[in-house]
Amino acid sequence: MIQDEREVKIRLPDADACAAALEAAGARPLEPRRLEDDRLFDDGQGALARSDRVIRLRSKVPLDGSGAGEGCVLTYKGPARVEDGHRIREEVETAVADAEALVLVLERLGYRSSFRYQKMRRLYDWEGALIAVDQTPLGDFLEIEGSAAAIEDLAARLGHEPSEFLTASYPALWREARGADGGDMLIEAPE
Prior knowledge:
Oligomer: single chain
Largest sheet: 8 strands, antiparallel, barrel
Structural class: alpha+beta
Helix content: 10-25%
Low-confidence stretches: none
Mean pLDDT: 93
Distance between the termini: 32 Å
């Protein structure tokens, strides 16, 4: 799928309270809470990062002990721009049947895993907007992806102002908090 992604993040004091508020507002859960394990890839010189582009391999891991996740997704993200306090960037995604084979392909092309980050995520749909409630090593976040009107409307319904909108990615927020050599953003033990 190819699309322009428009999104914001908002720091939350309590992910569970936000999830309850979303459901009370009529948001529809899309899947159970799960661990998302994301790996970014880049060449040895960091050319993708320097040009604000991303190759990401995402694995979704269920928390019910059922074993393997529901497959993986490979994503390309183009350079981001900020408009009206929202981050916008081209996004191209495709499902991947064999993550480890894909990692070998990327390595053979000269790419290596450059950063890994994890989050516990709940996904919702609300009037066409995709909403994530994330618990990360950086704290809890609400991520709203959709039209400008949907982002503004849902944020307001949940009591959030545009001044709270964050346009940085999780890797950028992690580097800001921990420095360039802060290591990967990993959850120690899934809850």
